[in-house]
Amino acid sequence: MDRSDPAGRVAAHHASTPPAGEGVTRIGYPIGVRTASVVRVAEVTPTMLRLTLGGPGLAGFHSHQADDHVKVVFPLPDGTRNDPVPDDEESLEWPRPVPPTRKYTVRRWDPRALELDLDFVVHDGGLASDWVGSVAVGADVVVAGPPGAKAFAHTYDHYVFAVDTTALPALARWLEESPADVSADVLVDVDHRWERDYPLADRDGVRVRWLDRSGGSRLTQEVAGLDLPARDRARTFLFAAGEAGDIKPLRAWARDHVTDSLVTGYWKRGVAGLDE
């Protein structure tokens, strides 16, 4: 997923199934700005809330890949709104002053019920975190996107997921949508014991390990220590997402150890609203 394009410019086509073959394929969706209503607010873990949005404002919404994201668009500091507007099917026009936004992975999209689930990590002092902690059922929420996806095939022989809690929604959706015989190693950085309670589908060929990050991330070391299939006998794909600095070393590691990879910084310590 390209999270660095504030205008949301994408190709004017989309796909409802993962691409075949190898590598990462850019997939565009018709981009839009929609106003939805809060249908439910539920606790997933003590530090994560799930917001379910719904209503006719979501008609025409597209989401076909596990890494899809939207921007939640907030009012300006004085309470007024300055929401983006579609420029054409491929982009949005962001007026000045640009409204504050935060990116969230599409955990679930139900086109029949017109329901959209977004999971929010709750922490002190965050714009979206403070907002979701007090938002009421029935409140209007403006969402922009998704702007398209970087999609990878479901046909690799083996997968490695190296993520932290911010990427759990993408991982959970991928586990639900991947083939029945999928083979994967999943490593998850967590800061609190209860984050391990995030619900993930139980898959026979998937091994999940939770890593305590209280003393610093060990994602790179743990990934490097995996007993992976030999490259000349099996194709392996690495998906790494989470804190940008923690996963950065995996870019170089991937070049020598896996067939293809997608490494995406979802956030960065000390930086609000990261656009990687």
Question: What is the gist of this entry?
Answer:
The chain is built from five helices and 15 strands. With 276 residues, the chain is mostly beta strands. A hairpin with a 4-residue loop joins strand 7 and strand 8.
Outline the structure in words:
By secondary structure, the chain is mainly β. It folds into two domains: 24-149, Beta Barrel (Elongation Factor Tu (Ef-tu), domain 3); 154-267, Rossmann fold (3-Layer(aba) Sandwich). The protein is 13% helix and 36% strand. The protein is built from five helices and 15 strands. The chain has helices at residues 127-132, 168-177, 219-224, 244-247, 249-257, and strands at 24-27, 33-45, 48-54, 69-73, 85-88, 91-93, 101-110, 115-121, 140-144, 149-152, 158-164, 184-190, 206-212, 236-243, 260-267. The strands form four sheets. It has a six-stranded antiparallel beta barrel with strand order 2-3-8-7-4-9. It has a five-stranded parallel beta sheet with strand order 13-12-11-14-15. A hairpin with a 2-residue loop joins strand 2 and strand 3 (48-54). It is globular, with a radius of gyration of 18 Å. The N and C termini lie close together (10 Å). Mean pLDDT is 89; it is low at 1-15.
Sum up the overall morphology in one term: globular
| Number of separate structural domains | 2
- Specify the CATH class of the largest domain: Mainly Beta
Tally of separate helices: 5
Low-confidence stretches: 1-15
Helix content: 10-25%
- At CATH level 2, the architecture of the largest domain is Beta Barrel
